[in-house]
Amino acid sequence: MIPALRRATARLRPHTLRARLTLGLVVLLAVSCAAVGVAAVLTLRTFLVDRLDQQLGETGGRFPASLEHSGKPRPDGETDGGEPDGDEHVDTRRQTPGTFGARLVDGTVTDAAVVPAGSDTTADTTVELSAHDKKVLAALPADGRPRDIDLSALDDYRVRAIEGLDGDVLVTGLPLCEVEEAVHHLEVVAATVFGGALITTGVAGALWVRWSLRPLRRVAATATAVTRLPLDSGEVALPARVPDTDPRSEVGQVGSALNHMLGHVESALSTRHVSEERLRRFAADASHELRTPVAAVRGHAQLALRHPGPVPPEVERALRRIAAESGRMGEMVDDLLLLARLDAGRPLEREDVDLTRLVLDGVADARAAGPGHRWTLDLPEEPVVVTGDAHRLQQVVGNLLANARLHTPAGTRVAVGLTREAGSAVLTVTDDGPGIPEAVLATVFERFTRGDHPRQPGGPAPAGGGAGLGLSIVSAVVTAHAGTVEVTSHPGRTRFTVRLPAPGS
Fold it and tell me: Which of 99, 180, 202, 209 is most deeply packed, by most CB within 10 A?
């Protein structure tokens, strides 16, 4: 119950600063209006009740005292046994209409009457009281202090009880209906006026807060525009700065701080871009320059191996190692050149590529290179065609299969799947090897990322190793084709998933 109430409260709570400020203004005004209204109502009621008390004090006990020899039937049905003379009538003169009078002897009500409206005679003044009303009157202390009572026959009254001259108790009362009507009328007027003031203030306050927060909205718009920029790579042009930078206002201070921060960020991004461009040019130039000497070393090593004369075994092994390593170095140089071209944003070829054929050829090559692994293939009945560079996509398939072959022990099952899902071609390479170490998994697509040990625990390093560029090339080529590549791994299962947009998607 409590969590549900908290969730409901959180949904109803305003979230924007404008709504909170407007709500706070309206709430403060509502509290102030309520305080003024309550004070006004209480003051008016107190004033009117004091006037009634003053009238009760001036009236004294004359009216209830005149009931003793009225000659009219009493509430108990008895009479006083005679006709009233000139001094024995009920004295309603100079009494406010509605004035109530009662006479009690030994705690019993003997007479009770009320002054009718517009009358100064004794006509129709008797009041029939219920047993409860008589108990209420009997419980009044004769100390002369005004009190509020509720009589079933007459509603609310302000009464005052005093002791008579012959040991009886005289009760005089005035109706509270006029006081309650005046108070209720004031409540209606106050509620109407204050309600209108709250509505007017709420609308005007919302407009005022909206106008006052315009600079803050410009700050938020600038910050939002920055969040949409690709700050991770390439040259970045930051948006225009915040125009409101008045240091005398809090919003101006925020805008000035944001402008300074954007200046620092732009300077840092420009420095990074220049450094990355310099590094790319260096990598491209170095790779291009290395291709000739590497090819020369490899050519001379192969030429020496074809020498017709006898060659000592140690020299022959050295020459073969030179040829192999120079070949590997040549592949590394080619990979670096490819990454440099992709980083420079050079366009790839755009043609229809049968990805099914590339996967078939790649698995066939992988079986020949790794006969100790168990290769399985799952292809759809219809060819899966994508638009892109066939040679680069072939590198993606080959690098993923080589990664599974080189970093898992013999006997590992490698499953290659190709499907079409929601307008995308999905290529998966899954193996049941020992998995990728947690420390390497987060950076597996970064350049020159290599684990200190192969995935097989305690096994030797894979023959020929790798330069740590295979998966980075996969990521770069897939990204250049507007696709994505992901990896999930735990002991016993590692899966690489490549998604490429299909034509028409």
Answer: 99
